[in-house]
């Protein structure tokens, strides 16, 4: 059973117990705490007794499912009993939780971190079935709340914020906030919003270490996660929420630091017969001086008017071998930055003893040596970490295959099954060698107090750790 959803569950979680007395409160005590939380929630959010009108921000381009000519406003049928309808559909693994065509096929905007127009589809009839109370209970059943230190009482007191964030994300992913399926609801309320709240808390802690008159550098949050597990979409969602809540953010990927096509050719020539360095990907195929230059420049964007252009990489160049994108296409980032979201499949990997990596794959010995320079180029800039943990690296192959099949079905160029197998095989040795240490000890140089580990299932949804 998908542990992110309530489907099939016959036991209702006790949302209202504190960590200290989860098993000791009597039924009466639990009911009193429940009523108190209910009162807090009702007093903090008046949508329970008043009509709800979605917040429309100036940069939104919202459209109705009908052919209305007015694309600048959204209306929801007024009701004194505002209700949500949540479908019980079990469909939705991977990016299929997204509908209206926003899936792995057309995520070029995500990969380039472009903020294009947003669309929301709203019904012409009143919403049905579930209430804010039901949504509250669904939120409290999420697997990440305890990890991020959020209690049911805290959710009740800030339910209006949860609703706002849920509305914004629904608009971003072209979903109808009143008619979410369970997979969609889980992805938004069990995953993206809790991670965003954790990031907000990390930013608060980071900024508290500086004096009022000091320039405060942006917090760099590192996302270490295998390919295909949804980290780019997660970062895209977080970046969007930061922008819409008035904080300036920047996004970068380790992909942005790949060697140029010429540099990659030289690396290949210097390591003949090493399949792990034949193409971009493993340690040794990145421009580390460019990484240091970029991360240093981003860290200095502390005031209005300061600008810089982080690099971007064009994976389609040279028949898919890739090359650094033309600098004229690099996005401009302007200060003062609050946060930098830095994602990559091998962020935080630590060099291991030679005999360990050779036992996994003899070709890893050179990669392991190259990895020694990555802490100073990447990891030392990262102050807060999110590690997305998988049980089996073979999931990477299935996730990549899903993406390529979707691209082919959409009439876009995509790798064949054999090409996908060959592509992923060049990464698996590093996963098998370095992930156990990453999961056991955390990223290279990380502070356990500033680390959030999220275990996900084959559907890319967070689950309760075993």
Automatic annotation (TrEMBL):
Superkingdom classification of source: Eukaryota
Gene3D superfamilies the record matches: P-loop containing nucleotide triphosphate hydrolases
Sequence ranges of Polar residues compositional bias: 1-28
InterPro entries recorded: P-loop_NTPase
Span list, region Disordered: 1-42
PANTHER family: URIDINE KINASE
Protein name: D-glycerate 3-kinase, chloroplastic
């Amino acid at each position: 059973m998908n542990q992110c959803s309530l489907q099939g569950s016959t036991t209702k979680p006790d949302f209202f117990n504190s960590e200290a007395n989860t098993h000791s409160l009597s039924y009466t005590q639990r009911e009193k705490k429940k009523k108190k939380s209910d009162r807090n929630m009702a007093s903090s959010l008046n949508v329970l007794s008043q009509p709800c009108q979605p917040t429309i921000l100036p940069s939104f381009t919202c459209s109705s499912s009908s052919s209305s000519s007015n694309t600048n406003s959204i209306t929801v049928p007024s009701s004194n009993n505002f209700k949500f309808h949540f479908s019980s559909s079990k469909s939705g693994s991977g990016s299929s939780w997204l509908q209206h065509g926003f899936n792995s096929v057309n995520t070029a905007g995500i990969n380039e971190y472009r903020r294009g127009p947003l669309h929301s589809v709203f019904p012409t009839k009143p919403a049905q079935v579930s209430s804010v109370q039901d949504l509250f209970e669904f939120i409290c059943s999420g697997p990440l709340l305890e990890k991020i230190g959020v209690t049911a009482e805290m959710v009740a007191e800030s339910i209006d914020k949860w609703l706002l964030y849920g509305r914004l994300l629904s608009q971003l992913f072209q979903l109808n906030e009143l008619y979410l399926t369970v997979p969609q609801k889980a992805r938004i309320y069990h995953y993206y919003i809790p991670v965003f709240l954790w990031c907000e808390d990390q930013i608060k802690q980071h900024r508290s270490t500086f004096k009022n008159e000091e320039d405060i550098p942006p917090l760099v949050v590192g996302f270490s996660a295998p390919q295909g597990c949804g980290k780019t979409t997660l970062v895209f969602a977080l970046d969007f929420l930061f922008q819409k809540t008035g904080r300036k953010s920047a996004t970068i990927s380790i992909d942005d630091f790949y060697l140029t096509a010429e540099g990659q050719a030289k690396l290949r020539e210097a390591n003949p017969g090493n399949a792990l360095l034949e193409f971009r990907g493993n340690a040794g195929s990145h421009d580390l001086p460019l990484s240091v230059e970029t991360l240093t420049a981003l860290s200095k964007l502390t005031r209005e008017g300061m600008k810089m252009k982080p690099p971007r990489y064009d994976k389609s160049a040279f028949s898919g071998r890739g090359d650094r994108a033309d600098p004229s296409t690099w996005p401009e980032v302007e200060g003062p930055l609050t946060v930098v979201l830095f994602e990559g499949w091998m962020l935080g990997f630590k060099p291991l003893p030679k005999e360990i990596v050779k036992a996994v794959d003899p070709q890893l010995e050179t990669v392991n040596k190259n990895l020694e320079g990555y802490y100073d180029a990447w990891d030392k800039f990262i102050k807060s970490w999110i590690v997305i943990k998988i049980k089996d690296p073979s999931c990477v192959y299935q996730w990549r295959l899903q993406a390529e099949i979707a691209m082919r079905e959409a009439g876009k160029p995509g790798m064949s099954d054999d090409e996908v197998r060959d592509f992923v095989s060049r990464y698996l040795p590093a996963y098998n060698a370095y992930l156990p240490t990453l999961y056991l000890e955390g990223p290279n140089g990380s502070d356990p107090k500033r680390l959030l580990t999220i275990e996900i299932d084959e559907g890319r949804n967070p689950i309760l750790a075993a």
